[in-house]
Specification:
homodimer; alpha/beta; Rossmann fold; eight-stranded mixed β-sheet; 7 helices; YJEFN_prot_NAXE-like (chains A, B); YjeF_N_dom (chains A, B); NADP (chains A, B); nucleotide-binding (chains A, B); YjeF_N_dom_sf (chains A, B)
Chain lengths: ~230, ~230
């Protein structure tokens, strides 16, 4: 299986929208749903000792949108989701995704959670801050939440890219979060090779075969109705 | 569990879009995906003797859109989908759903399949012609495909409503297709009580709890990551 560089990841994304005519609504729904399924599979079993209260940290772009979708589906799967979503856009889709969360009883807050509150309250953190278009360094307004993620002992599930990591080179000196689980979407990016002791899943079962071939992705087979594949 | 009348079904749908601010893209993707999952579960096992070539009949409205989405996901699950989609709209979403199918190698045709071809070629028919807003009688342009569905021995999976049935009263004298499987979306409609010897599934795992309560739906519990529940 191929690990995409940043340029390839951006190109694949553009082709899905421009050539294959998917809407952001469609693919974000499928991506966020696959994240919720991985989380439910990994941490949601009745035997799991992980608390079902989940902090979902959503960034300003599409990675954050995946997080908002995941939060909604997690709520329907009896997780207690709390969303931190500090920097919002005026795009209808994002306003509506937030509204959908709130009308299902999910709090969507601009207040950065403290380390103490996170450690005391949550069983899991979903990191949906930055995705494959991120370039370091992290902007100052996100420094407080990155500090919480860096210091917290609560397991982190990163959506597509561990936030703050370079998409190709991985952890940076100042941003070195270590997710317990990474959910690569569409295809893994190069930084996923720098994971240590993390579960790694692939989600986003929507890539047209012709596009897989064009980028020589060699994706693994999704079994049955699964929306994800466990890679390691 | 409650079976909705036509007025309730229309109201629930309107609330999902107007109050909960879902887009058609989002809910159609989830609905169509749940249909593909039911079909894969029911007919897609390696032990199944049903041929994996599926005729997906898509009507002019949202029921047809669910069919187009299901066809695309079925293709990704190694079913060989062929779409009959005679009456198309100018809406971007539908143009794009058709394009997505075609760019995955699915033929989308306006030519009504003959009974002989259907019987010889296909292992399954997905009936996504008319949904919960249908009122009999069937328009003349759909008479040929309804005739095929009425006469064919190939198992039919109906999406939300067996096409041609009255949403509340069920089979009509002139339209009395007998699906092998019905996938009710969101909540079953009254006509589902008139099924005989059919499998019955519920899909569309996206109904906000407050909306479920408002309509006293008393939906069954979706287990694990399943996007459907088997009702009978």
């Amino acid at each position: 299986m191929k690990y995409l560089n940043q340029h390839e990841a951006i190109s694949v994304d553009e082709e899905l929208f421009n050539e294959y005519k998917f809407s952001v609504d469609q693919l974000m729904e499928l991506a966020g749903l696959s994240c919720a399924h991985v989380i439910n599979d990994c941490y949601g079993s009745p035997q799991s000792t992980v608390k079902r209260k989940v902090l979902v940290c959503c960034g300003p772009g599409n990675n954050g949108g995946d997080g908002l979708v995941a939060a909604r589906h997690l709520k329907l799967m009896n997780f207690d989701a709390h969303v931190y979503y500090p920097k919002r856009t005026e795009k209808d889709l994002f306003i509506n995704l937030q509204h959908q969360c709130e009308s299902m009883g999910i709090t969507v807050s601009k207040d950065c959670p403290t380390l103490e509150w996170v450690e005391g309250e949550f069983g899991l953190i979903v990191d949906a801050l930055f995705g494959f278009s991120f370039k370091p360094p992290v902007r100052e307004s996100f420094a407080p939440i990155m500090d919480v993620l860096n210091k917290s002992k609560v397991p982190i599930v990163s959506v597509d890219i561990p936030s703050g990591w370079h998409v190709e080179e991985g952890p940076q000196d100042e941003c070195n979060i270590q997710p317990d689980c990474l959910i690569s979407l569409t295809a893994p990016k190069l930084c996923a090779k720098k994971l240590t002791n993390a579960k790694h899943y692939l989600g986003g079962r929507f890539v047209p075969p012709k596009l897989q071939d064009k980028y020589a992705m060699e994706l693994p087979t999704y079994e049955g109705n699964n929306l994800f594949v466990k890679l390691s």
